Amino acid sequence: MNMIERSYEQLKFIDKPEKKLVEIIFLDHFYFNIDYDELEILGNFKVEKGNFLFERKETKFDHIIDRGFSDLKSRITGKKVIYVHKNSNIPLIGNGSFGIVDRGTNVIEIKPVCGCNIDCVYCSVDENRRGVDFVVEKDYLVDELEKVVAIKKHPVEIHIGCQGEPLLYSPLVELIRGCSNISNVKKISIDTNVTLLNEKRIDDMIEAGLTQFNSSLNSLDKNRSIKIANSKYNIDHVEKMIRYISTKPVTQVIAPVWVQSLNDEDIEPIIELCKETNSICGIQNYLSYSLGKNAGKSITMENFYDKLKILEKKHDIKLIISLKDDFGIVPDAPIPRIFKKGDVINVEIVSPGRMGNEMIGIAEGRSISIYDNKKEINKKIGKIIPVKIIRSKHNIYAGEPV
Ligand code: SF4
Asked: Whose CA is nearest to atom 6 of ligand 1?
């Protein structure tokens, strides 16, 4: 019998007869399940080569798929995932975890995805304290980004810097291409932990318009690199990819986080690797953040720069980097600030946020993180409530119910 195929560009179907369900994979790293019971109502079906086939024409399958997205989860982190798309009613400006962040310079940060495949002991975004990930529709992100780029007076750099690893965003190459097609975008950079790169992906990203890799590398020692990544980690692969990038016509910044007493003996070998691969050496000082991980004691920036000055002399390399002189980052027209601290506004609650006590609200085209330790607003999705703005910086807004 001829069956009717239902295929979707971004979805792959996997039959799980032992569990009596079909698993639907979205953008490679996300999934939700649909029980046989729900599908059998629509008629006989089968799953073949990742596609879904029905015996007869039906009209309710799309509705079931749409509903399934409310149960979206990450295959990497196991967390609940919110898909932010054009029709989701969630603005891309206002939240530091997803979307677009404009800090009033000619660099615009974009965050297409949250979540990481490793678990660095020093991570400033302690994923274990965040229960929800976000993933953003590529076209929505590019369209909204274009509006922000249009405000800028200088040539613009788009910086792909996620709360997590951007290589977990499967349309990454298309996203880079979309960014590079925006007029006045002159540079596109990415922060990556390198683990998920391979030669083809590197080539594809460069061909799409990527101009700079900021490659995270904290140790060249096998055991210590695993200890720092706190996960399965293949330093040989990471080093190989860093060396491969260095053969390409792009800038590479090798960016170790120097955690005192943890990777002291790794910093000098990394400096030598930077020299050998003609990479910029962007050593960062480990600073502990209230919502990050505690990897040990931090030192002051003054103390840190003193150490860098000594290493600069010893290795004859520039280690103290100037954002303006080395990366051409300058102040530029910001997107308008809509709310200021202390404002009381009406906000519609639309989804959970990353933290357990956080919900995402929307008002006047901005997303607002609303924190409520009593979690009473968690039950108010769809409701409009009064919120007092407690933080308004770089168009990232936080508030609390009043
Ligand atoms: S790679 Fe980056 S985001 Fe991932 S755990 Fe390490 S520091 Fe955090």
From this structure: 120
Task: Name which of 80, 94, 89 is nearest 399 in CA terms.
Answer: 94
Quick: pLDDT tens for 148-168: 999 999 999 999 999 999 999
Q: Tell me yes or no: is domain 82-327 CATH 3.40.50.300.
A: no
Residue-wise pLDDT tens digits, 259-271: 998 999 999 999 9
Cα 14 to ligand 1 centre (Å):
30
Residue bearing tokens 């096998």? 222
- Residue 165 Cβ inside 6 Å of ligand 1? The answer reads yes
CB neighbours (10 Å) of residue 86? 12
Integer Cα distance of 84 and 352 in angstroms = 12
Please report the atom of ligand 1 found closest to the CA of residue 164: 3
Angstrom distance (rounded) from CA 152 to CA 329? 12
ipTM of this predicted complex?
0.99
Contacts of residue 253, defined as CB under 8 A and 6 or more positions apart, other chains included, come to 212, 213, 214, 215, 279, 280, 281, 282
Place domain 344-401 in its CATH homologous superfamily. Answer: Nucleic acid-binding proteins (2.40.50.140)
Where along the chain do the CATH 2.40.50.140 domains lie?
344-401
For 82, what's the count of Cα atoms within 13 Å in the CB-facing half-sphere?
Answer: 24
Nearest CA to ligand 1 atom 1: 193
Instruction: Tell me the C-alpha to C-alpha distance, in Å, between residue 212 and each of 162, 190, 249, 250, 364.
Output: 15, 6, 9, 6, 34
353: Cβ contacts below 8 Å, ≥ 6 apart: 95, 97, 132, 359, 360, 369, 370
